[in-house]
Amino acid sequence: MPINVNDPEYTSAEKEYYESNTIEEKLTALKKMISHAPKHKGGENLRQQLTTRRKKLEQELIKKQKSGKRTSVGIKKSDMQAILVGKTNSGKSTLLKLLTNAEPRISDTKFTTTKPIIGMLGYASTQIQIIENPAIDSDYYDKGLTNTADTILIIVNTLEGIKEILEKIPKAQGKKIIVFNNKKNLDERKISATLQSKKYNFLILSQNLDELKEKIFQSFDKIRVYTKEPGKPKSPKPIIMKPHSTIFEVAEKILHGFSKNVKETKIWGPSSKFAGQKVGLKHKLKDLDVVEFKTR
Q: Is the pTM value of this prediction over 0.85?
């Protein structure tokens, strides 16, 4: 492809094209190159080459979109799963490292993350699965992973970026939390006022990280149920259940068919009338209840 074009806008777009990592970025750069290519007869061959290349890239993009490229194969969803979604260099990897035990590669280079990275956040006696999705503006982004997550953490650096990302995840059913990574030191009072006016569930990242952890935990709408054997202390880790789950459902989650072997159950906690109350399998539980199973 000829490079002896004097227009600085063309030269800049050409540099952008060769430095691009995704089809979308290459197409954007190519369109700029075409618009700044010489319009005289001598530039006709160059314009044809650029147009041909653009058409090929558009075909590649259509194939990629139809194939529904998936990268989440093999990721087992936990009881509570949150996903980090944002554009490249928005701060997703940094946030994943702050929240979890994961060690993602952190770099100013664009599109460093090329596959989902999983970390676990220990909070309120639970283990929350936090997954960093590759940049939403990259070829590696997994929309299926976003669509099925319980909670979506939308990482942005600008107020305009919120609408841009929301428009790209129309099928995402999980609860959304806006995490504003204030890289440009904008007026946080104005940011808060704007986000509050739009009734977003949000947090500015420069604030207390524990507040974000609490927001993530509360977004799942789950209850924690501890189990115990007669004469022994409760289990160190709770079983995560949906609100209003029954003792029968807890027993079946422990082991399919276990409920048939249950002879007697006692409960301690918010749903009990008194400590050690005997209840049946249909009893509905509340957060932090303790259930004692006595088997046949």
A: no
